[in-house]
User: Fold these one by one.
Assistant:
Number 1:
Amino acid sequence: MENQATSSCCDAQPAPQVLTPDQARERILTLVSAPDAYQQVPLKAALQRVLYTDICAPIQVPSYDNSAMDGYALHSQDLPVDNPVCLPVVGTAWAGKPFTGSLARGQCIRIMTGAKIPTGADTVIMQEQVERDGDSIRLSGTHSAGQNLRYAGEDIAQGETVLHAGHWLQPADLGLLASLGVAEVRVFRHLRVALLSTGDELRSPGEALSEGAIYDSNRYSLYALLQQLGVEILDLGIIHDQPLAIRQALQIAAAQADAVISSGGVSVGDADFVQQILSELGQIAFWKVAMKPGHPLAFGTLGGAKFFGLPGNPVSAMVTFAQFVRPALQRMMGCQPPAPVRLQAVCSEALRKRPGRVEFQRGIVAHEQGVLSVRLAGAQGSHLLTSMSKANCFIVLPQQSEGVAVGERVEIELF
Ligand code: AMP
Ligand code: MG
């Protein structure tokens, strides 16, 4: 093997800085930003894209007063007071086919849900509360003026800012924009993220396993996490633990992507070797983050791209993605990373922990007899991916915690 840096206690590699998870996240966030470039995309292609501009409502919604019920529209002054009233039915209003005339006092029309309220009417009576008799209705009982109407502009006023620049578009937003007649939106250009795994032992699913080999799981879990963010993914596959291969892969990745994510090769055993190439090619800092699982972590600039070197252990790779990479990529996509949803839950089993590091234990939270109750999702080794697969939350134990007793409250972070 060429050029392999040897590591020993006497080597002059600087000791990695030790940061808390919050410090590491804050530092990363101050060093990333969104590209100042946008694209115009049709609404259906806008899911998980980030708005480049504010959206102001070109029309009000609803755009006209309309009926919330199938029934009869009339004027409130014709509502019964003491005795039942009889009103002739002079027409019908359908959704999409309004009643064109205007309603005189003492008349009513048949009206369907969503149909425009005609001039002269201000109240709708549900059809179940009316006796229909040929061409007229008989109405008794107590009714309130203005009932069963949906008013123009009740949801959105014309000119109102409905969504702000930096908003990460979700399904309801696409419906909202469609309701305003918006057919295309201006969004930040797609973020391109290159993904690679390092390790001589790695094989792709579908290949045979030779002795000492394992399947590359990180590229699949990380790929899926990236898919959930809606970024464009460049899968660069598995890179062998060879300086030339790593150098080439990183150069290709940095030339084509806004962010490069690798897993493996940043731990002490072969880290010196990867560190050497990274420090030749870019400005990368190696951090020890006081967290479990998950340290060390490499972060920096590689050509025009940001580089995230995640630990190889499968749980560590996912935890560090969730804590550092996801918020950083969200900012690079143009949005403000949403704060993680952290809740209090009662721990239904004892948790072991040594003080010194923040721990992200994998938990299963459920609602039991009115309280949130959390337990571990199996054994907690950073190589045991089943714990992530079964879990629906992280149990976040602070640095100084010395463990948790049954019944104690803990903080959880929902997936
Ligand atoms: P490393 O950080 O390269 O020293 O790897 C730490 C541990 O994670 C080793 O047991 C590796 O075999 C394992 N590992 C590294 N990369 C992957 C991967 N892509 N998929 C599954 N396990 C991995
Ligand atoms: Mg390795």
Number 2:
Amino acid sequence: MYQKVSVLIIEDEKSICDFISKTLSGSDYKVVTASNGKDGLAAITSSLPDLVLLDLGLPDMDGIDIIKKTREWSSMPIIVISARTQEKEKVIALDAGADDYITKPFGTSELLARIRTAIRHNNKMANASVNSNRPYSADGLVIDFEKRLVTLGGQEIHLTRVEYKIVSLLAQHSGKVMTYDTLINQVWGPYADDNNRILRVNMANIRRKLETNPGEPKYIFTELGVGYRMLEDEGI
Ligand code: CA
């Protein structure tokens, strides 16, 4: 039986909620809405959506607490809807387990693309045991995790151990933003200096090796004040 993908929208601003609702229904999603945190949490457990769109500033609750509560038992994709001034909240939300964020005001195509990416990524994670060693491939860049080999247009790219670790982490989460702290923790361990400088230095070197124009990267994008996002795997 054909089943629509269901999305729960937790958002107290009616105009935004209506806009998203209409966009998603028009794209064949099943939509459930909640206008406060309490109803949102109840809807998460009762309707078990395929994805949650979550506003952080809710009248009765901080959206971060909804992420934390949900992550205690579920890995369902959560995309945070945030205002442009909430850089710090975005980082906290991602570190609490949100999958991605979208900044207000956003367009319909951006919203739909983010939703598709998050759902695809979640399915990929569910199949991880089958596909974990499949290479990353996007726009001429191929990363073979088994051979630890990076090629660009068929030419081998020589990366240091640290550079390779950063690139392979981003590639394994491609399409999604990884925060500076997450990357630093996973590359240098939990006791590393939380200063971003060493990460930025490594990223500059990586970009010199991978990008035709490091100032306008096409493989690894900077999410200002938050982290990095790698071009989504084409899944070939
Ligand atoms: Ca709000």
